[in-house]
Amino acid sequence: MGVKFNTRTIAMLGMLIALNVVISIFFHIPIPMTHGYINLCDAGIFIAALIFGWRGGAIVGGASGLLLDLLLGYPQYMFFSLLVHGLEGWLAGYLGAGKTQGRQVAAIGTAVVIMVAGYFISDSLMYTMATGLVGVPTNLVQAVVGGVLAFPIVAGVRPLIKKQTSL
Questions:
Q1: Nearest partner of 81 among 107, 71, 154, 7, judged by Cα
Q2: Which residues pair with 36 in a beta bridge?
Q3: CA–CA distance, 96 with 104 (Å, rounded to integer)
Q4: Do 84 and 115 touch, CB atoms closer than 8 A?
Q5: Which residues pair with 37 in a beta bridge?
Q6: pTM of the complete model
Q7: Which domains can be identified in the chain, with CATH numbers?
Q8: How far is CA 136 from the centre of its chain?
Q9: Is 29 helix (H, G, I), strand (E, B) or coil?
Q10: What pLDDT tens digit does each residue of the chain (167 aa) get?
Q11: Is-contact 47 157, C-beta < 8 A?
């Protein structure tokens, strides 16, 4: 997507990272079996990706994931979250930004699969494959809920953002 990365856009991405982290901190559920938690981080990632494209999705995804793990006490996941959520945002933005709603659904679906697979690999490397398998359904629910929440927000916010970034 051709959103220019001017000072205003960078400030909006920073505010979206902060908002995403704060909302996800307040709405997170620890999952002891996976040594992790579920949250609303994916909604903010998908919002950034569909509005700001692949760069915005990658920046908000990676930064939000890393900061959440740091602030919630899961430092073992920080590096993995930077990569997995960054890739999730990059892919959703690359495939879905500026496209039809059908393409956006497909982009988010693809990004969901990548995120779930990324955390399966992360959990399997850090703990066991059984831990990775236990995390699949919770990560899937987290990502799908994030996608469902992102669509109406993007539809309502996109006209305002386009107006602001064209100034």
A1: 71
A2: 31
A3: 4
A4: yes
A5: 30
A6: 0.90
A7: 22-165 (1.10.1760.20)
A8: 16
A9: strand
A10: 456 778 988 999 999 999 999 999 998 888 887 777 889 999 999 999 999 999 999 999 999 999 999 999 999 999 999 999 999 999 999 999 888 889 999 999 999 999 999 999 999 999 999 999 999 999 999 999 999 999 999 988 877 766 665 54
A11: yes
